[in-house]
Amino acid sequence: MAQGKIYVSALEVAERAGVSRSAVSRTFTPGASVAPETRRKVVEAAEALGYHVNQLARGLMRNESGIVCLIVSDMATPYRSSLIKALTQQLQNTGKIAMLVNTDRSDGSVDLALRQAIRYRADASIILSGLPDKSIADLCLKSGQRLVLINRNDDQEGTLKINLDDREAAGRVLTAFVRAGCERLAFANSDARTPSLMAREDGFVDAARAHGLDVIVERFGGTTYESGKILAQKLLTRSLRPDAVFCATDLLACGLLDAARHQFSLSVPEDLCVAGFDDIQQASWSSYDLTTFSQPVEAIALEAVSWLADEMDPAVRQSHSSRRLHAELVWRGSIRGG
Amino acid sequence: MAQGKIYVSALEVAERAGVSRSAVSRTFTPGASVAPETRRKVVEAAEALGYHVNQLARGLMRNESGIVCLIVSDMATPYRSSLIKALTQQLQNTGKIAMLVNTDRSDGSVDLALRQAIRYRADASIILSGLPDKSIADLCLKSGQRLVLINRNDDQEGTLKINLDDREAAGRVLTAFVRAGCERLAFANSDARTPSLMAREDGFVDAARAHGLDVIVERFGGTTYESGKILAQKLLTRSLRPDAVFCATDLLACGLLDAARHQFSLSVPEDLCVAGFDDIQQASWSSYDLTTFSQPVEAIALEAVSWLADEMDPAVRQSHSSRRLHAELVWRGSIRGG
DNA sequence: GCCCGCCTTGCAAGCGTGTGCAAAACTCTC
DNA sequence: GAGAGTTTTGCACACGCTTGCAAGGCGGGC
């Protein structure tokens, strides 16, 4: 396959169609004025030659690349990957395209990757990274990008913040535990101290207190299956063993469930009620059958993308810059008396 | 945040540094000739002004965008998402950036998204989509992109094909089953009939035949957990119940395991030996503890990205255009006598 | 028939960058 | 100090596209 001269340019299309280059350009610009007959000739020539608008050049002129940058850590995690999927799908629907930046490595490579993204003049960035790297957000904003923050609560100007009703959800699960007759409550958290995780924790503790109940809170590691197992060790070896655990995340819940059953030989939900958060695929697998809260992934993606598509003036955008979505409780078998 | 005039151009940097614009350009072009003193002045000015090379313009000039397009279906799947993660990481390491194209929808939107990617003049595409859409590959190639196919065996010119030793792996798991004393073998497959899935099936059947054993083959649905459950129904309700099942995929295996235990009350590995393929996270969870083959995700990513980085001449590239990697058997508790 | 207004079209400038070419500056040797 | 050789630098063109502007074409109302 020869290297040089692979792509067709608008000029060649114009020559073949017998029109000017501008006509070709206008044909592929929605809303531009071009006569039906001219358009037909251009489209025909373009098709024959295999012409594709050069988005690099167009972005250069329009000062609008059509690229949206997804900045994400732990992207192989079930929840994150389903969010990425929904976002890319929605972006494609609106004619934009997703660029993926992995921020797992905490060394300079993150910064490097981000700078790389800025070089491409992305129109916007969507941050679904748990890391509280405020500097990342700053850099994006300073580059004139629009910014969407998912499950974070940085207080930035001109950004869209999407969050769930984590506190209220925590209250609802408490009610369920109480109704199931649980008395010794626990909350299993990672110690990442992400805003959303802490909201669930605080919401749960507060709701319990309102019922005159105390909560044992344990925090450990990242939000992983393995952390869940360790949290189970910490919680289930106590002299007064909890009979209900709300896990900040489904992954934690899965680890905790496995440890409870296989290491401590407990039955769920008879000996122990468990709830999680995210409604990842595995929560519905029959080994877990976990009662949990569903992340409205599609709604989040839709909200983010349509905000990006909006050509609102800054003032309006400002006032609409925060969205709270509802996390629906999904009843399964890990809490008594559904 | 004002809309106009956000990005700094090389010209402004040049003016501030008191040099020509070319000097700025050369400073940020590796290997270009520029005096140390000039470079210092330029870097200083660039830093002060917050200058970032406009990759759109650079791509336009160099005819090389630095973008690599990841074309993927079922991206929220554990295996796929871990591969995406590895690939984006590797790409970032070599200064390239990943663009994500979701091909789940089988309507025209796929084609649209792909066309979108072509418009960005991606240097290469990596296809990890199970779909046998040969037209996609053709379109990429015709646009002069380099192409990497993972776990597919289309016979295209000038592409890199990365596969595993699926057949051999299947042989190894058969040996394990035989050594465990299993006699009634089965293979659980999706009916996607992807090359790699079929290679595992054929390899298993052939190896069994070499041992004078027959294999019950059952195919159903996509490679999902739910399909695994259904395959369990089909296999375990037989009059002569299999005592060993090789599942084409870990997801299938998880579904099959859950059904075997919870619906058929079988013990694994006592009543039934099970093996999977992919070594997804969940395979190591104690509810599954699945013996399986690990996908060398990092190695695959490394192979793909370094092939893309290579400036080999076409002839050499041609001869190196197919790589077979080794899938290592990961021993866990779902086969007797590890 | 003429004038006015609208739709369409071509021209040309510009977006921010890379790079060949020739001039300029510098280094070194004799 | 002169000349040859090597860097370094600036100029200007090119990349493929959008778009303001003005000119051309066309039809309608008088």
Automatic annotation (TrEMBL), chains A, B:
Pfam families the UniProt entry points to: LacI, Peripla_BP_3
GO molecular function, one term: transcription cis-regulatory region binding
InterPro entries for the chain: HTH_LacI, LacI/GalR-like_sensor, Lambda_DNA-bd_dom_sf, Peripla_BP_I
Domain HTH lacI-type stretches: 8-62
Entry's transmembrane regions: none
PROSITE patterns: HTH_LACI_2
Record keywords, A-Z: DNA-binding, Repressor, Transcription, Transcription regulation
Descriptive protein name: LacI family transcriptional regulator
Organism: Pararhizobium antarcticum
